[in-house]
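Hi V.,

Quick status before I head out on leave. The structure for the redesign project is tokenized and pasted below; the design run finished overnight.
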């Protein structure tokens, strides 16, 4: 028996999920370009290709959609690193349960994988709209920033902080390691937040397989440089 693909005959719940997904995806781009105040519900609905009444129906209004978009964005980014995040957190749990410390070499290997994953993601076109949304929230934080920071930024920074603390032989909770981690994260974020400058300096038009391999090597070098100054001066 042939399956009927007429969208008007889909179960209502399925159609609702599709409509929600369209609005969430479209709103990340629209809010990122125009901000919360500049984006109108008409713009949001038109970009998503849905009826204007879908916004209050599914999200209660523009503010509800904005918060939901932030959570959706955190979920998308989290999905790209979910497997590696699970590996690292499981390893932390094993070490904590056994009362043992991670070896610096293992910490470097895990941090290298994390940074390589993030740099490749940041130079991709799909992360462009994400960056606009997040940059606006960095400049003028709202409840949306709380959702993004709490759901993805803080967990990732804290993982990196523990790995960097292990590499440098210092307490991950110390101010020194917190600052060092933020500086390190900034050296990775530049590939998205200063995307145009990166491409101009490297004289790249796109990031194909060759360019991505260069970036993976660079990520490994960033991690290898951690603590190098201590070895140089000792």
């Amino acid at each position: 028996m042939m399956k009927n693909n007429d969208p008007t005959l889909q179960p209502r719940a399925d159609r609702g999920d599709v409509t929600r997904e369209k609005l969430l995806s479209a709103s990340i781009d629209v809010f990122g370009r125009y901000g919360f105040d500049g984006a109108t519900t008409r713009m949001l609905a038109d970009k998503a290709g849905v009826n204007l009444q879908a916004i209050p129906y599914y999200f209660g209004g523009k503010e509800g959609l904005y918060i939901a978009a932030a959570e959706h964005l955190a979920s998308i980014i989290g999905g790209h690193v979910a497997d590696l995040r699970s590996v690292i957190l499981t390893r932390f749990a094993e070490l904590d349960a056994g009362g043992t410390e991670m070896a610096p070499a293992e910490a470097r290997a895990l941090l290298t994988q994390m940074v390589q994953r993030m740099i490749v993601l940041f130079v991709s076109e799909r992360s462009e709209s994400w960056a606009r949304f997040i940059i606006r929230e960095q400049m003028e934080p709202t409840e949306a920033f709380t959702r993004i920071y709490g759901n993805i930024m803080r967990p990732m920074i804290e993982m990196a902080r523990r790995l960097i603390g292990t590499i440098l032989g210092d307490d991950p909770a110390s101010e020194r390691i917190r600052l060092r981690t933020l500086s390190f994260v900034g050296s990775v974020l530049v590939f998205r937040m200063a995307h145009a400058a990166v491409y101009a300096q490297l004289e790249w038009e796109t990031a194909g397989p060759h360019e991505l391999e260069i970036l993976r090597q660079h990520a490994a070098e960033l991690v290898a440089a951690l603590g190098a100054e201590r070895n140089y001066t000792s």
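Above is the designed sequence. The two ends are 76 Å apart (CA to CA).

G. will cover questions while I'm gone.

Best,
W.
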